[in-house]
Predict the structure.
Amino acid sequence: MKLQSFETERFFARYEFSATHLLSVSDCETVTIETLLELANMNLSNLGGLSLGYTESQGNPALRAAIAKNYPSVTPEDVLVLGSPIEGLFISLQALLDKQDEVIILTPAYDALFNLPEDLAGKAIPWELKATENSWQLDLDRLESLITSQTKVIVVNFPHNPTGFLPTPAEFHKLIELAQKNDLWLLCDEMYKGLEHSETKPLTSATDLYDKAIILSGLSKTHGLPGLRAGWLILKDKEMFQAILNWKLYTSICPPAPTEFLALAALKAADKLRQKNLEIITKNLELAQVFFKRWDELFIYRKPRAGSTALVELRRGRATEYCHSLALEASIVLLPSPFMRFPDRFVRFGLGRESFQAALTAYDKHLSSAG
């Protein structure tokens, strides 16, 4: 199988570690290992005494039990611990798809959510969020029209990266009804679950509503621990579970022991980590509101309802060209929308880090100096 170029990660590889200001990061503020263990009331010496032998392929039983507690209908046997979150996407789609299958993907989307289904099945169909004057909307009638006899999977991401969209419970139930009616798998990326903003009602996880849901989640976004590479899949269909586990044996075999140890600590401290990051996002949303009101002639800002990202429309110019020139000329990084399979007039802002204020101030000065 020949894979498409992973443009988002190549873009960040070019600029992320050299630019002064990162305005487009998708994760939240991180912590050190020492701080994480303190938050979890665990001792650093326990990590030092950890054996670095093989671990269980499905994942540490204690970690699977801790993960399962977050989902009312899930048992530890429904949980597959990963070597990294993206591994879960790769192995689940490998197990799900044959060449004749069609996959419907909610867009804009992180590259891998679209590219992997397209490369594996050959026919990946975009289901675009609709941009209204002030918000994003889900077009469920459009989804229904896209479903054919060849459709195998619907891929969604809620809370949504990059728009910050979250459907209402009624909309989400309608989506699940469509999947159930057509006997489709629903692959639901829930990496941002728990980052619902103050006025937004959280969604019940798809796994607690539909037996053919496959959940991808982890600790990179909501908990701000992307360097940990901790993630998991949840699915209740035993036959598909074993098929995906078999693919895992050909990729990472088993999770890293230090990752599992620290993931358990993160789950013990989950509420503290999540609350910390929600407070940062709340503060940054207020800063963003002021900034976009000031620069209304340049941007169309649709306030996100959840998550740590916002997709902002440029009133003029092409996003890809603009983002490269901004990084090179001002050392400020924004991500252009074509990498996310969306028209070339949007840029992603990241709201989850403490550095957002300094980066936004630098951007404001750059715009002012540019006239």
Notes: The chain has a mean pLDDT of 96. The chain has two domains: 7-32+271-366, 50-268. The first helix runs from residue 7 to 15.
